[in-house]
Amino acid sequence: MGQALGCLQVDQSTVAIRESFGKFDEVLEPGCHCLPWWFGSKVAGHLSLRVQQLDVRCETKTKDNVFVTVVASIQYRALAEKASDAFYKLSNTRMQIQSYVFDVIRASVPKLDLDSTFEQKNDIAKAVENELEKAMSHYGFEIVQTLIVDIEPDVQVKRAMNEINAASRMRVATNEKAEAEKILQIKRAEGEAESKYLSGLGIARQRQAIVDGLRDSVLAFSENVPGTSSKDVMDMILVTQYFDTMKEIGASNKSSSVFIPHGPGSVRDIAAEIRNGFIQVQGTE
Q1: 153 with 126: CB under 8 angstroms?
Q2: CA 131 – CA 123 distance, rounded (Å)
Q3: What Rg do the C-alpha atoms of the chain give, in angstroms?
Q4: What pairs with residue 53 in β-bridges?
Q5: The Cα angle at residue 75 between residues 109 and 102, in degrees rounded to 5
Q6: CB–CB of 44/93 below 8 Å?
Q7: CB within 8 A of 59, min separation 6: which ones?
Q8: Are 140 and 132 in contact (CB under 8 A)?
Q9: CA distance 245 to 258
Q10: Are 122 and 148 within 8 A, CB to CB?
Q11: Strands 7-10 and 31-34: what pairing?
Q12: Buried b (16+ CB within 10 A) or exposed e, 25-53
């Protein structure tokens, strides 16, 4: 109805292209405009000034012969001061941008191996943005931002990469576990060595105390009982210890059967063997 009366409304963030008898006349800003159609004026079309996004999926090959799909997101908009160029110079803006993206990605990615492609995706995005900015500025478009949002290797390659990563982590875990067991064994050995040292020290002190006690007992008995020699005292002590040992063996319910020759003569034999042992030790010293 408005156009029939010669009036036209242009919405916000949009411009209209007015032609007069088929020739570009001017760019109509947002608002209400007079459009005298009877003088050959008409609206050729509208152009949005909003930021638009184009997602491009490009399949290419890396330097190490791995096929990947690179997903790039291009954010662009038409410039109001160059609206006529944006409207007339390109018939399909999205296809033109996609062609430039394909060209840059397929020129950049084959120079990098797979790992470097992931690491340098920002550099790839910057290269795409620079190329697009240089090319699309002649057509009245501004490249707002370029993002490499995803790099998708082949499914089998992704599975192989996951297996390599899992094997590497398993190897590290095995090394850490072995190192922990090594430390545990070292600490256990150190503890056992310290325990044996302290046990040996205790036994040595015990034997020293026994020797000191026997010496004191022999000296005291010899002084208090005239006519007795050290040999008599030792024989009596050995007999006493012999019977104490027999008593302990018989009183223990967990001891195994032990057959010991028992008799008065056997006590003398045991005493003689002990004395001979002491004598032989002293002889070797």
Answers
A1: no
A2: 12
A3: 52
A4: 75
A5: 30
A6: no
A7: 67, 68, 69, 70
A8: no
A9: 12
A10: yes
A11: antiparallel
A12: bebbeeeebebeeeeebbbbeebebeebe
Q: How many CB atoms lie within 10 A of CB 231?
A: 11
- For residue 91, the 8-state DSSP code is S
pLDDT digits (tens), the chain, 285 positions: 445 556 788 888 889 888 888 888 888 888 887 777 667 778 888 888 999 999 999 999 989 888 899 999 999 999 988 888 888 888 888 998 999 999 999 999 999 988 888 889 899 999 999 999 988 988 999 999 999 998 888 888 778 777 887 888 888 888 888 888 889 889 888 888 888 888 888 888 877 777 677 677 767 766 776 666 666 666 666 667 767 777 776 676 665 655 555 555 555 666 666 556 555 545 555
Concatenated DSSP letters of 93-139: HHHHHHHHHHHHHHHHGGGS-HHHHHHTHHHHHHHHHHHHHHHHGGG
- Can you tell me whether residue 260 is helix, strand or coil? coil
